[in-house]
């Protein structure tokens, strides 16, 4: 624990530590006294003969800085194998506190962050209005009495009673010293900033309700003024943790919050006139919270490191969008941060909710398209100058990353970034045909690329197609690279048990031959060609089944074709599957019949699952399989030739097994998240 001027509360707290039941493992109490002007240090030292206590002293104030000092000392003296339990100098533990923490940590070895129960220890009975009206969690750090034993949102793990395995700190994580207690007027959120950041890094939280402390609540904290002051601090902390640009802003504040403030002011006046004290208090609390948020916005304090805005002209959820989210994760590894800004498309809300669990923000951003759309181009350019530039600046990005999905689809926002004075990088996600740049667009394109610091493509083919059009506009200093898409090889992996279970769940015989594809049911992926290939092979292999995992505009026509052919028992349509790693191991061959690909993520996902792969010899897929021993290429427009190659694989299970093993090895060596992540971070090095 950290303590500053804690002599009023520490005696009851340290007496509580003296009553603790000893756990099986050795334990030590580390107190960091920081900047006290009273006799706190001497008081703590007096307990050293009654407790396994070590006292550290620093003249510098700030709770998080003190905790970081304690963490450093504990790592040096106890290493990273211990459980680090954090509490406050006004939180008295229950006698079995350490026993419960020891039991919880042992029962959940897969978790590294834990929250415990924080109960009230009232200096005097609270007034009747307080528990009824005040948010006691935000005000006093009390946990909900009905919070169950189990996974918990990391924002509900609070500093008066939390535990973190030492391995987390050994990996380099520390408290943010710019927030949390540091004098009277501080922004709240010191420990939740850490727990949320840890959740982003893959450390989810578990709640242990039996590990209990009593949080001492002083008499002056039962007053209206104190509660409203905490609301103001909460507003300041909320601003710090929000992502800039998520909503349209005015003077650095989301416009909807300004509207809400006006509504609360009206509500306050109405409460005054109606004489309702309860309603009046609620309005005062909301206004205090909003004033704290606005105050922090005015100061412009967003100590979140370098910001990268990743945007695209996106029309549906696919491999490019998944890569954009992965880019945010990579940036966070490098100490920067990122957010996504996209126009609306089908499925974006569900995807955004998924990403919100990692605190990855997806904001709506659809600037006028004067490159992508010829009609109204002059009007759209004017709108971009007058409106979209202000919207882009609201994100407060240090660098704009434009994911280029097709021909000139991305050029408008690239120009906009340059217009706003923001440097940019471009990632190319498709191999698209050459186009003629109009005379009207050429000067705008020169302006757009003048701010581009780097370009990378997901395949050599994609890069060559992009450079064929845009090389004359690139500066000589622009960094150029090929960085493939990645696959989580811990998530996508061979699994014989899962293979049997998935086949059973989908109604596929265990001994059947199963071919299939994970792909959108759209023209680009040519699912009808895959169905034709299957129908051709069915004449030779009566026990052959086809699995199509995905959804799209062609789904209805594909199902009708299957019905008319009388093949419904042999063709499985799964629709969109989020956990696609559970489906892929069921396949004997993964076959992608695309007319073009930027890269082909489904191909490497199948390879990671140990499934041999087949793909048409088109850019993107050819980049993966041209030199691969885990897959083969087939002609894009010759179904008979493709069927002959696939038949050769179906006839040779030994060859398929060997190819699957080599495919897995290639996926790990070339496309794992770790391997690709290093390439991405090397690309960004010096750019931000």
From TrEMBL:
Lineage, top ranks: Bacteria, Pseudomonadati, Pseudomonadota, Betaproteobacteria, Burkholderiales
Domain of life per record: Bacteria
Protein name as catalogued: Glycosyltransferase
Keyword presence, Cell wall biogenesis/degradation: no
InterPro entries, sorted: Glyco_trans_1, Glyco_trans_2-like, Glyco_trans_4-like_N, Glycosyltransferase_grp1, Nucleotide-diphossugar_trans
Transmembrane segments: none
Keywords: Transferase
Domain Glycosyltransferase subfamily 4-like N-terminal intervals: 318-491
Domain Glycosyltransferase 2-like: 1-117
Residues in the signal sequence: none
Annotated ranges, domain Glycosyl transferase family: 503-665
Gene Ontology MF: a single term: glycosyltransferase activity
